[in-house]
């Protein structure tokens, strides 16, 4: 029912440029560098990908997640750092959950759900000193970027990557070896110029969070609503029945438009942020999300949060995100079947965002944290601008605001028309 979790990741990694125009070669022939993978047993590889250790320094901070008095910080592709936030003025690092290939987590009733190389991993965190009962659901989630390539594996410079001998169901890539071959351009294109959808060995073989759940930021791909976990991937929603917390049931995935990046819910509606638009799905029947409507925009990276009759979407242009200029889009969703753009506010490089009562918080990358008054939306006067910090994502909690950026965790206290920094913790 689920896809093999390794068939798209390498799409981005092919290159077909000749690297030697030596006069010693026959006309029409060139020297090419071909990389072939070094592999290990996939089962052993995944078993070694999960471990609970004492705190370590973070390498690359990603998303944040809050649950009870704990903060979980994703170390992109490596795992999750656990912080005790009983005292927000002095949070303490207490554990590192090695979870290779991880980008997202979600928690309900002391059960942590996270992705790892396309699998769904479940663990009991009721005792932070003895995290255990770890289970892995093979191929339950397809994560296009990590898959079964070790996160610490360096990709060699090559003109092509040869996977013809790789068994994607049994082997994981742990390294590479390269060799030089001489062939004609026609021979090269015939052998390495295919698409994965054809004959590659990696192609496909076969309500706001409740009190018993945690809270993620706007960049999350996981969302728990009631007894269901929704995990979005590039072009579908993976649905899990978690009424039995220790034994999630994998349900049929729901296919969507491509480019899905984030998920948010308000009541019985899911709002998916994609690189071409916002997509709305009805989950009144939670096992089968049903498409309602969409709001399309130019190509850009696109998280979304919703509060009442308005959706707030940040679009970040440039690089792989697309050519669209960066900005905050305010969308009227009072008619859920016909979302209507009301206004665009220019931004520099926005990432995550969040709302709390009459405040809207925007992480504008290296331009810092921006705070707006949304009491008279779509008019959004700016209340404050915290400059000289790099910002990535925020979680507006009941008592304080959490923000992550460039390996630093910030916490702010709400004021009437402002916020005040109460602590910052360097994670590396």
From TrEMBL:
Arranged from A to Z, the UniProt key words for this protein are: Signal
Signal peptide bounds? 1-20
- Please name the Pfam families in this protein's record: LVIVD
Name of this chain's protein: LVIVD repeat-containing protein
Species this protein is from: Croceitalea marina
Q: Which lineage?
A: Bacteria, Pseudomonadati, Bacteroidota, Flavobacteriia, Flavobacteriales
